[in-house]
Amino acid sequence: MQLRARWFGIGVAALAAIPLTVLGPAGASHAAVRPAQATAHSCATAKTGSASCKAIVRTDLASTLSVAPNATPAGYGPTDLQSAYNLPSATAGAGRTVAIIDAYDAPTAEADLAVYRGQFGLPSCTTTNGCFKKIDQNGGTNYPRKDGGWAQEISLDIDMVSAICPNCHILLVEAKSSSFANLGAAVNRAASTPGVVAISNSYGGSDASDATYGSYYNHPGIAITASSGDSGYGASYPASSHYVTAVGGTTLNTASASRGWAETAWSGAGSGCSTYNTALTSASTFGTGCAKRAEADVSAVANPSTGVAVYDSTAYQGYVGWMVFGGTSVSAPIIGAVYGLAGNTGSIDNNYPYTHAGSLWDVTSGSNGSCPTTQWCNARTGWDGPTGLGTPNGTGAF
């Protein structure tokens, strides 16, 4: 395969920090795999009763506010992701809304979304044309305070929905803090908004009980996705809720096989067994080994070393503009947007992937560490903790 360097329109010295890219199927270009990369989490560790976002930024790459003409930002773009997951993104999703739930305010969210969609030739998505809407957790415009880390998360989320379902509308609901109570109120607000078919939650905290927080995530007819976490084994809420689709993470690369891509379990992907919450009915035949709720259910790319391109102009930790992100904050909105493409949420629940596992790419190698029970941390044929049942192969499992 031909190798070339991406040009960022920045100084020559910075090129040493930029990965080579590989020309994949149909000329798709993306970051080549390298050893473990320098990264930073966008959000602080969650305190009791609250959550942290699961975005991880590559700090070994220079970020920039602009990309030279006829160049492509580093990291996977929409064409790559749509190809990897065999998605009908060009023709599906119209008339459906995917909601994004995050804490605090990203003041430049809409402008940054326009840069991302313009760079990749996606249709405009603005407040003016009705495609994009931003509200606070009460449904108004009294936005919370700005937070640079959560602003990165917000840009990541809305960019991934755009990449997977460019015809979907996007609703951004900003909670006034990262407490489960405020994030949950934002979920309820999104669920009460006409047209919303999926709600993505790229955050998590310690395992918690649905008896306390489950009412925020129990919305029949709407698919609720949640990041499984970025620290390996250990249940995370709301991914451990009985009511959500828990989304794990993979490493995504090109391959010579007919699919053109290959995936392994990402070493950071969250997995675990809830202490509190009831198992999904359809998971009982998949040998999870968990007495209660097992996570994850499905997965998508999350390894920062094979991360995605994101644009965010709210500077944080010295990074601004085009960046490369990983974490299960990538995979949760990807799966939320696949639900948007499928358009089935009015008649299914989160057991559906288990009864349609044949429409997923099974991930059978890789690990996120050592566990008392092998499948909780090691990919295998069928269900496993880091990758669940696998990754989308079209929309048939959603």
What is the terminal separation in angstroms?
34 Å
Helical content band: 10-25%
Fold-level CATH name: Rossmann fold
Report the biggest beta sheet as strand number plus sense, adding barrel if it closes. 8 strands, mixed
CATH superfamily annotation: Peptidase S8/S53 domain
User: Low-confidence parts, pLDDT < 50 over ≥5 residues?
Assistant: 1-35
Number of helices: 8
Integer average pLDDT: 91
Report the radius of gyration as a whole number of Å: 19 Å
Shape-level CATH architecture: 3-Layer(aba) Sandwich
Give the total of beta strands.
Answer: 22
Give the count of structural domains.
1
**Which class do the helix and strand fractions yield?**
alpha/beta
Description:
The protein contains 8 helices and 22 strands. With 398 residues, the chain is of the alpha/beta class. The protein has a single domain, classed as Peptidase S8/S53 domain (Rossmann fold, 3-Layer(aba) Sandwich), CATH 3.40.50. Strands 7, 8, 9, 10, 12, 14, 15 and 18 form an 8-stranded mixed beta sheet that branches. Strands 4-6-20-19 form a 4-stranded antiparallel beta sheet. Strands 1-2-3 form a 3-stranded antiparallel beta sheet, with no helix packed on it. Helix 2 (78-84) crosses helix 4, helix 3 packs parallel to helix 4 and helix 4 runs parallel beside helix 7. The radius of gyration is 19 Å and the shape is globular.
